[in-house]
């Protein structure tokens, strides 16, 4: 199985929405239109991981996006999303995507922020390995489930294992 990382395109929006429904069924998953809007914003960077199946079909198995915010005097970035097809989780796809997001954030400068469900222990552990610390809790952040989120922050220039 080959795995390749490249840029997410508007043609990927339907597949992203399909994966969102699998990954976040109780929390208002993003629509294809939401992904297209994210891709249209100049300050956002989105990436995809694809694999070629034995049948020869290429399938997008993961996606991620980061927003590059602030200005040259006070830059910061925010991880918007990382999603991996459940059939391909625990194979390093999420790590590959996070590495790329953090590379984009490093070029931009400043700290990196994200929100993560407080019960998503594998993601929290991954973020901690990359130098993120919990800086707050957002009660009822995810809707309609009402799940809480941790706000996590990674300092500028800091802490990636890659």
UniProtKB/TrEMBL annotation:
A GO MF label: protein-N-terminal-alanine acetyltransferase activity
Enzyme class, first EC level, given as a word: transferase
Protein name: Ribosomal protein S18-alanine N-acetyltransferase
UniProt EC number: 2.3.1.266
Segments forming domain N-acetyltransferase: 3-157
Gene Ontology annotations for the cellular component aspect, listed alphabetically: ribosome
Superkingdom per UniProt: Bacteria
Record carries keyword Cell cycle: no
Keywords: Acyltransferase, Ribonucleoprotein, Ribosomal protein, Transferase
